[in-house]
């Protein structure tokens, strides 16, 4: 580690809240599927900002859009219409499922989930929700009520009020049928559970959720914060299942790396929210809007959904070809991939970063999660798979307790 690198790391560790576990590295630059640290070492990035950099780091169209907009206008509240906001809304509604043509703009996935919760209550006049075991919906007090993992909720005790939330086993249709009643405002679910271990839903489960919510007068809200914008091989994962929800929470990849969030919904849902019932200062700001226009256009022009579908199939095929007794299962959808091991994944994640220059994520203690930019090449995929095979063959978890403790700090959430 260089003296300069140590200085920056020391400053971040000194002044940071310490809530987020830190790697002992300072990242300074990125392009496409590669990032570089202060010392000039390159890494193939299969974290992508927790699934944000779908179109790659520093996509030239997004960079240009940000530069151009920064010279014109940075801030304008949503009460004052803006040309770039109108352009973004037109682009976004142009790619969302039919009927989802009303948008509440915000700054993150958690904010989108908070909005969805309020819109569901006003749209139905109900206050009960159905959420999924192993699901993740965000860290704010409102969104935490939908998040299953106790470790996220328990430090805050009764401040996290989930008395009106019924949790069902992801994929269990009988539990779903029992949980959805005439008191249910909405069912909240991820088409692919990310934090829960990269688990795609079955078509039958998603389709039954759609049928039951319509039957009971409840909303179906799909959490597409991580699955949206080409990650799974479609613009939105809902397209794999042939269903149109009443709303979708969106964020992450929508603006190519600039913070952004949205709740898209039907007109009927939107019109039942009283005027002034929700809002925000920075949502829909011109800078994020410009980045979002450039990002969505790049996704369409460069066929990124098709790229994710083809590269994801190739990636999983290569991972499944690894001959290792440590692998229990390889699963995923598009370029949202998880490898479940028969032992803790943290030492392997640590070894991939420090020994092989490959950045990955944890999803449950046993799963190594791969979320590379859609722009990753097949050659880079081959490099990642070869590196993974080497660490599987070389890491002894019992002898790597220190590495495991360090790598375990990487377990962070997908939403802000």
TrEMBL record:
Keyword list, A-Z: Amino-acid biosynthesis, Aminotransferase, Cytoplasm, Lysine biosynthesis, Pyridoxal phosphate, Transferase
Pathway(s) per entry: Amino-acid biosynthesis; L-lysine biosynthesis via AAA pathway; L-lysine from L-alpha-aminoadipate (Thermus route): step 4/5
One Pfam family here: Aminotran_3
Residues passing through the membrane, by range: none
SUPFAM superfamilies linked to this entry: PLP-dependent transferases
Signal peptide feature range: none
EC number: 2.6.1.118
Modified residues (N6-(pyridoxal phosphate)lysine): 252
Listed name of the protein: [LysW]-aminoadipate semialdehyde transaminase
Organism: Deinococcus actinosclerus
Lineage: Bacteria, Thermotogati, Deinococcota, Deinococci, Deinococcales
């Amino acid at each position: 580690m260089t003296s300069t690198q140590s200085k920056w790391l020391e400053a971040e560790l000194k002044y940071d809240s310490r809530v987020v576990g830190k790697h002992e590295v300072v990242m300074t630059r990125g392009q496409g599927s590669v990032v570089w640290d202060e010392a000039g070492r390159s890494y193939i990035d299969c974290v992508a900002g927790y699934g944000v950099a779908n179109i790659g780091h520093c996509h030239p169209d997004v960079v240009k859009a940000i530069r151009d907009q920064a010279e014109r206008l940075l801030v304008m509240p949503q009460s004052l219409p803006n040309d770039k906001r109108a352009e973004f809304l037109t682009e976004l509604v142009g790619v969302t499922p039919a009927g989802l043509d009303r948008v509440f703009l915000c700054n993150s996935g958690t904010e989108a989930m908070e909005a969805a919760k309020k819109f569901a209550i006003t749209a139905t006049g109900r206050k009960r929700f159905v959420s999924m075991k192993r699901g993740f919906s965000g860290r704010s007090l409102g969104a935490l009520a939908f998040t299953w993992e106790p470790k996220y909720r328990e430090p805050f005790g009764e401040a996290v009020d989930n008395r009106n939330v019924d949790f069902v086993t992801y994929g269990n249709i009988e539990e779903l049928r029992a949980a959805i009643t005439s008191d249910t405002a909405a069912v909240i679910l991820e088409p692919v559970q990310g934090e829960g271990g990269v688990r795609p839903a079955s078509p039958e489960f998603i389709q039954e959720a759609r049928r039951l919510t319509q039957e009971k007068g409840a909303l179906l809200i799909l959490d597409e914060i991580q699955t949206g914008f080409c990650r799974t091989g479609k613009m939105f994962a809902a397209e794999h299942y042939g269903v149109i929800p009443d709303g979708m929470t969106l964020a992450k990849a929508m603006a190519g790396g600039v913070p952004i969030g949205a709740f898209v919904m039907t007109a009927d849902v939107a019109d039942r929210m009283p005027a002034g019932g929700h809002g925000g200062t920075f949502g829909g700001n011109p800078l994020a809007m410009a980045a979002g226009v450039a990002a969505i256009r790049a996704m369409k022009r460069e066929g990124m959904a098709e790229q994710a579908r083809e590269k994801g199939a190739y990636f999983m095929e290569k991972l499944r070809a690894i001959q290792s007794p440590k692998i229990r299962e390889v699963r995923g959808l598009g370029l949202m991939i998880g490898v479940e091991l028969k032992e803790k994944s943290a030492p392997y994640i640590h070894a991939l970063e420090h020994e092989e220059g490959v950045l990955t994520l944890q999803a449950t203690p046993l799963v190594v999660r791969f979320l590379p930019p859609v722009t990753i090449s097949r050659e880079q995929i081959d490099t990642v798979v070869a590196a993974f095979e080497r660490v599987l063959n070389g890491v002894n978890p019992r002898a790597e307790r220190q590495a495991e403790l360090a790598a375990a700090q990487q377990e962070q959430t997908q939403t802000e």
